[in-house]
Amino acid sequence: MQRIVVPGEKIAGAQIRIENTISDKNGTYACVIGYFDEERKMLMPLEGLWQPRPGDNVIGVVEEDKGTMYIININAPYKALALSKFVDAELAPGDIITASVKQLERGGTVMLLRLTKLEGGKLMSVSPSRIPRIIGKGNSMLKQITDGTGTKMVIGLNGLIWMRGGKVDLATNAILKIVEEAHTAGLTERIKNLLSGNKVQ
User: Fold this and answer.
1) 139: helix, coil or strand?
2) Which of 17, 25, 49, 107 is the most buried (most CB within 10 A)?
């Protein structure tokens, strides 16, 4: 069961570790406006910016090669940098990469590491708040899309998705449907029908 919650609303009578919440000895409380899934214990913001944390996987586009570092656009109100000495591939402006957040420094600069160049493919942007639903519990939704389309996908927590091969247009349609209907029940079955070519309500 899902229900809309607002900041400060109590969503559990015990201390539970849930993204976008705070907790104390009396319970767990929402920090954002969103849909709370009681069964899966997930709080999905209706809207919201991605807040970088160490270890987050992101996708970005190289904007500039400064010689000793690369400036990366990560689709967020943060400047992202990667030191050239830690990058194995030779990169140029316009190249798409996936990387891991090392840390967020003062002034809003995101330091990246473990950069990997993504060759070719298509880049898609969605609200970062929809990424958990696109991935699904235990990668279930993502696997359903990749198995149903044969498309290779890399998901960035910053709201960028890279796709290559297979039925990319079908994979795109599935993602758009998830974005639009993330808060509704029965979505998994509707995505299954979409991918299998059955009529979708």
Assistant:
1) helix
2) 49
